[in-house]
Amino acid sequence: MSAAMAGSAGTASAGTSGGTRDGPVDDEGCPPPCTSGSSSSRTSMPMASERVTSLNTCALSFNISFGLGSSGSTRVSNELGAGRSQAALLAVCVVIFMATIGGLFLGLTMILFRRTWGYLFSNEEEVVKYVATMMPLLALSNFLDGIQCALSGIVRGCGWQKIGAFVNLGAYYLVGIPFAVFFALVLHIGGKGLWMGIICALFVQVLSLLIITVRTSWEKEAKKATDTEHAI
């Protein structure tokens, strides 16, 4: 114990008296700055930029789809309230057709400009290359999301909010999250795996809402809407 204390005291006195210090020093006797934190931050910054760029691209395309779904919801509800079942069916067909064409156009645009799209958000080559690999998945999810927004607007216009809630919960919590965990953590695909889970959820959501819409009797829905309006 005393030897250790003496040794530590000697080391301290040597350090205070201008003796040598452990590790490299510069010309003025100061240690070099620590670079481990800066290197990790430089590594994490491109990864964060990659995720943010993908999310911003998805949000940009979603605004277009959401606007189309909102207009379809208003149109369908107005036609059903007026008792015009055929006009409501026509509005449904038009909004689905426009969502399909718009999704195809945006998807093809994303694929064609996938190698330069990343420069809109960052100058990092790593970010641009990662966005280029993600763009086909983003294009597919945008296409499905456009149709989903149109069908969700139709569901809202018909007053089927409860059905839409069950479909959304089942698609994302029972299908999307498990598949995202499987792709990302089990198959080690990473961020692409998370997005593939979202695509699986969107596929189930679109398929479920499409089946509900196709099997709908628009004459009965129009009669139900007019009866409700007269009752009020």
From TrEMBL:
A cellular-component GO term for this protein: membrane
Keywords: Membrane, Transmembrane, Transmembrane helix
Keyword Membrane: yes
Region (Disordered): 1-46
Compositionally biased tracts (Low complexity): 1-15, 35-46
Gene Ontology MF, one: xenobiotic transmembrane transporter activity
Domain of life: Eukaryota
Residues annotated as transmembrane: 87-113, 133-154, 166-187, 193-214
Family: Belongs to the multi antimicrobial extrusion (MATE) (TC 2.A.66.1) family.
Protein name: Protein DETOXIFICATION
Native organism: Tetracentron sinense
Lineage: Eukaryota, Viridiplantae, Streptophyta, Embryophyta, Tracheophyta
